[in-house]
């Protein structure tokens, strides 16, 4: 049931304040005078010791689920102190890459039925790793076959383009990082700030959804473009990849997410006064580096659309020619949850304006159960 919405993708984008609330329900502990703020993931509590002892955490997934894991990787590395590596399921299988008994392999999948991810799970089980699932579908193959896991509880997602599952997956993996790091005194204040940030997140998502009309206006400007680049780094490298995936998948426009640190190693050659480029430059430890990227793109007359933190327009606007998307600020590791929303809205409006099928893009299926 689409309710007041025209498409499931639109409904699922606007539902995110509620889906995130459901994802966190019963899992965050506010703390009090004698109790620290903490996280309770029922499905993992008996396995946390084993995870903490593992030599490596390997994230495995496809498409949007892979991107969600990439968004959570920095906070997991920070709070766990364990090396975290990333695997696209098909590529792990193509290489028969090394997976060891001492590894924790985390399988991320909305449907829980993706063939590549499922086969990578069988492979990791054979190799003796502890296998953890992060899925949206209770009773799915991945949920059943992993040793333990966390349901993201985002509610049924119908649009082929994954939106609310993405933001809920990031939140679950941030909670996973908090749970693994729970025994470390030195990071207690940081963890407390993230937990406060999680409590605030649904209201901040509600705020960023107010950019709907602005994104529709931007889509009108971009309607006839051939291509759109999205530059990000750090926590928001994943946002660049995921924003570009949404644009290509539903709006059928070529789009590429680019790691801003790689700019001079190739992508800079593409920049001219015609190609539109989104630069994600919200406040975090990478902000000054992104300011310098903006200056360099501007010097080559790049057609820039800059996403920045509310109130920062003047600090990111060189020469006054860029278009600005201002978003609310949250704790740095949660910022990808906010930053993807305008890009989801942009992809949605571009699709409608270009006259393509929003909920079932050509050639794609919601869950890819064949290889
Ligand atoms: C569980 C209940 C929830 C109830 C809550 C109350 C289920 C599905 N969930 O939620 O209804 O409100 O207790 O305390 O009954 N698992 C995997 N692989 C996965 C995902 C999950 O093995 O990919 C396992 C978990 O390890 C766990 C079980 O499935 O044993 C349920 O996981 P989850 O729903 O996340 O647990 P709770 O949040 O505790
Ligand atoms: O169900 P899964 O999360 O395993 O699906 C993985 C990908 O097929 C999926 O995320 C795909 O990339 C989406 N259509 C992207 O919107």
TrEMBL record:
<keyword id="KW-0677">Repeat</keyword>
<keyword id="KW-0315">Glutamine amidotransferase</keyword>
<feature type="domain" description="SIS">
    <location>
        <begin position="47"/>
        <end position="186"/>
    </location>
</feature>
<keyword id="KW-0808">Transferase</keyword>
<protein>
    <recommendedName>
        <fullName>glutamine--fructose-6-phosphate transaminase (isomerizing)</fullName>
        <ecNumber>2.6.1.16</ecNumber>
    </recommendedName>
</protein>
<keyword id="KW-0032">Aminotransferase</keyword>
<feature type="domain" description="SIS">
    <location>
        <begin position="218"/>
        <end position="361"/>
    </location>
</feature>
């Amino acid at each position: 049931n689409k309710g007041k919405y025209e498409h499931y993708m639109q409904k699922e984008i606007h539902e995110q304040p509620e889906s995130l609330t459901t994802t966190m329900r019963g899992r965050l502990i506010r703390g009090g005078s004698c109790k620290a703020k903490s996280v309770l993931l029922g499905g993992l509590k008996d396995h946390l010791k084993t995870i903490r002892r593992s030599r490596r955490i390997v994230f495995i997934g496809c498409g949007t689920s892979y991107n969600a894991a990439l968004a959570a990787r920095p906070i997991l590395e920070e709070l766990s102190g364990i090396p975290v590596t990333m695997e696209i399921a098909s590529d792990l299988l193509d290489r028969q890459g090394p997976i060891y008994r001492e590894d924790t392999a985390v399988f991320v999948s909305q449907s829980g039925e993706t063939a590549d991810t499922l086969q990578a799970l069988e492979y990791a089980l054979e190799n003796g790793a502890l296998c953890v699932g992060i899925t949206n579908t209770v009773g799915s193959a991945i949920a059943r076959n992993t040793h333990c896991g966390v349901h993201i509880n985002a509610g049924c997602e119908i649009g082929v383009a994954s939106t609310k599952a993405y933001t809920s997956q990031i939140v679950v993996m941030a909670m996973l990082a908090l749970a693994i790091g729970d025994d470390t005194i030195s990071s207690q204040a940081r963890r407390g700030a993230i937990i406060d940030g999680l409590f605030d997140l649904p209201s901040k998502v509600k705020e960023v959804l107010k950019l709907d009309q602005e994104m529709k206006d931007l889509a009108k400007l971009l309607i006839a473009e051939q291509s759109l680049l999205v530059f990000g780094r750090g926590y928001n490298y994943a946002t660049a990849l995921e924003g570009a995936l949404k644009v290509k998948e539903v709006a059928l426009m070529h789009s590429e997410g680019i790691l801003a640190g790689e700019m001079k190693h190739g992508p800079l050659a593409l920049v001219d006064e015609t190609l539109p480029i989104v630069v994600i430059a919200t406040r975090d430890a990478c902000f000054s580096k992104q300011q310098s990227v903006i200056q360099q793109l501007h010097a080559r007359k790049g057609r820039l659309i800059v996403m920045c933190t509310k109130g920062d327009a003047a600090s990111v606007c060189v020469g006054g020619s860029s278009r600005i998307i201002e978003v609310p600020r949250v704790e740095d590791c949660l910022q990808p949850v906010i930053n993807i929303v305008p890009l989801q809205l942009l992809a949605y409006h571009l699709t409608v304006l270009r006259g393509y099928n929003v909920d079932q893009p050509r050639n794609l299926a919601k869950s890819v159960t064949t290889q």
